[in-house]
Amino acid sequence: MIKVGIVGTGMISELFAEGAKFVEGMEVVAIQSRDEMKAKEFAKKHKVELTFTDYEGMLKDVRIDAVYIGLPNSLHFEYACKALSAKKITILEKPFLSNLKELDALIDISEETRTMVFEMNRVLCLPNTHVIRDHLEDIAPVRMITMNFSQYSRKYNDLLAGKTPNVFSDEFSGGALVDLGVYGVHLMVDLFGMPNNITYIASQLPNSIDISGNLTLTYDGFLASLVQSKNSRCDNRITIQGEKGTIYASPTASRIDTVILDVGEKKDITVTHEYESMTYTLKEIVRVINEKDEETYRKQLKQIRNVLEVLCAARQSAGIKFTADQK
Amino acid sequence: MIKVGIVGTGMISELFAEGAKFVEGMEVVAIQSRDEMKAKEFAKKHKVELTFTDYEGMLKDVRIDAVYIGLPNSLHFEYACKALSAKKITILEKPFLSNLKELDALIDISEETRTMVFEMNRVLCLPNTHVIRDHLEDIAPVRMITMNFSQYSRKYNDLLAGKTPNVFSDEFSGGALVDLGVYGVHLMVDLFGMPNNITYIASQLPNSIDISGNLTLTYDGFLASLVQSKNSRCDNRITIQGEKGTIYASPTASRIDTVILDVGEKKDITVTHEYESMTYTLKEIVRVINEKDEETYRKQLKQIRNVLEVLCAARQSAGIKFTADQK
């Protein structure tokens, strides 16, 4: 049994606690928050045994095997380094880290302490993602890909009121690309590998952070346009256009609700998802840990690195600067 | 009655002849083709009185007031110059011309001979385009626009077989942007004016011509991604995302089949099109001519120039070179 301590009591941690309930071999046993009341409330709501106000205290506790870090983006690095140093298996929410320097440093600690680190990437393990993967051959060769991940941010009104919520902050490594675009980048890198060229054009705040943008990834013989927006919304759509046909998918944040294959006529090839998205990823993480599946683990780390490379190149292309880059 | 001579017997000329049948005040009276058989067949099929094999012959004929030029793109300039010099009102198929040098020269002739020149731009006069225009306020401010105009070319197999059809030729000023992207550019310029920045990233043939691409137009506070592909297809879609809601439209080449307004819940605001797309544009052309509506005419010329400016800047951004640019 992998016993997990959750860091942070935000909405994402709630989703984690819910998602973990359906994962055999994993149990949420602890919650950490500097705010004791919040920790206790969370513990009560999700039937979690242990509460901590002190992160270091949780890391020292031998009853905990792993931590899940659902904190603002720029805090991922520090918290993950500490967890890995304490030999706790670490699950980091997406986006994994701010930049490649952080990744290199984190991987070094992970290798030294022989402790595994995972990304809570919800999109790659979804059954409907496998469906897309399995049907690419039917429409091959691919000639154009468009993805739109737009979600009107709950924090946008705060921004309009003159505040800078974490998700729009350079200090907290925010922005539309790392928050929403990351789903499309993960899919592209998983399905098609690394692009030849990366161009990101964005609507940017004075602090350089992107509130929306259009990321073009070019490959041999085709290109992809990944659009994301945090100040407007639409029925999100993935369209993979090939010479022989087209695949349409409807993603909502980290789910894929429908997959339609059109090779002359439209066919619904959706599979019904049994669980919420986090559950699929957690089941795979548990499998990799228990089976000591080094090959998959290495592949996942490579995917994480590739995605971060694309995100960093895209940010550079648009001139988006995180405070974390200057450290 | 404006008596029109059609130049060229291709599919587009067939559409023109069909579309003109519903236009009061306009009549197709002549067809010109170097191939006499083709001219006669066309004349018989569409009940056209006069046939010409010689373009100059048709231009000299006093029974003809106007010409419609439905030839490969790079021939537009030469044929339109001759028509305007002969004081024939000229209707040019889209894309209007290859570049701004051609436009300046053509406008000079048009002013000298006091003869009007129009673009057969099918998208701007559509009733459903007016519907979109009228509902922008409901979703304002606009924050993200995506358009996808993809159409698998009937000539793509020729290209794969090693030939270079006109539509993929630098000599004939071809490519996905000027052929399909032009619809989206016309809409953007009409609805939002000139963009601040223009970036085109394309999949290009060895002759530099784009077979597909992603055009990003940036405006104050939002941007637009215009995707076009001639070697794949999809359900074409226009999405205009605002802070207060979203407008979806389904265009097929030069029609707009549905318009959906979503400001909390989805509402179908489509109007049924009574005619095919060319008819609407021709009715407006006849109105402008008959009412001597100089203001609308000047506005149209400005729109044509702006669109051509965007197309040329986009081509320059991607390195797409037409033979016509070197003249």
What does this structure look like?
2 copies of one chain form a homodimer. The first copy, chain A, is an alpha/beta fold and 327 residues long. The first copy, chain A, folds into 2 domains: 2-120, Rossmann fold, CATH 3.40.50.720; 127-326, Dihydrodipicolinate Reductase, domain 2 (2-Layer Sandwich), CATH 3.30.360. Chain A has 10 helices and 14 strands. An 8-stranded mixed beta sheet of chain A has the order 8-9-10-7-11-12-13-14, covered by helices on one side. A 6-stranded parallel beta sheet of chain A has the order 3-2-1-4-5-6, with helices on both faces. The first copy, chain A, is globular. The A-B interface holds A 142-144, 146, 148, 150, 152, 197, 199, 201-203, 211-214, 216, 218, 221-223, 225, 227, 229, 231-235, 237, 239, 241-243, 246, 248 and B 142-144, 146, 148, 150, 152, 197, 199, 201-203, 211-214, 216, 218, 221-223, 225, 227, 229, 231-235, 237, 239, 241-243, 246, 248.
